[in-house]
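Entry: Probable membrane transporter protein
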Amino acid sequence: MDHSLGEQLIEALPLLLMMISTGLAGGILAGLLGVGGGIVIVPVMEVALGLVGVDPAIRMHVAVATSLSTIMVTSVSSAKAHHRKGAIDLDVTRLWAAPILIGSAAGVVVASQVSSGVLSLVFGGIAALVTLKMILPLDGKHITSAVPRGIVGMVPPAFVGLFSSMMGIGGGTLSVPAMTLMGQPIHRAVGTASLFGLLISVPATIGFILTGWGDPRLPAGSLGFVNAIGFLVITPATWVAAPWGAKLAHAMTPRHLSIAFGCFLAIVAARMLYRAALTL
């Protein structure tokens, strides 16, 4: 070996600190915005993987899959915090559960067949569209007064599951604006979205493990496209920090919460679209 174990640990320390910081930020945003933390974890982890020399062709796949694995834990912590405040709509959850699960599984199949540049484009493009919805003064403007039922009502959650699993997010980025357009109050939409993170992340994580299994380009400690090291470092931090974000969310006005969500997404969208432009 060229380096001693101590030297290897010292070299890995900045990456570990970045992962911990990512987990804390992701946890706070999970509780604050109902986004499962993935909207932070994916872009930051993609950069971190680049620093350690992971092949650009699979970098986004690993970031997306690992993010989804952490959301399995984060969403439980965040959902429990929102449930204590009575902010989860169980009727909407029952209506949307099956379409979200099906969409999530389909998203993994699509993501495993496309390039990292395409995943970056999807991530950035959708984040930019949602940014407009959250920043523009559209409070009180709805497509419907209630969440629709029947076949038509299954389309929005199916797309939430599909694109969320492709982006490595817990679904809040898409389901929060979707639910607010259907007459749901922002705090209730955020709380309900935190539970959707579990429905999206479990099947998607399993799918990414299977589709990436045995790829020789994977970094050390990977189970398929899911990097176990990233999961073990980020997950505890997100679990601890998610209730902090939930507490902060209920201390903010609906308008301030929407603006905070939109401003953050604008930064993320710009970064991912820039990356897509460089790789496509």
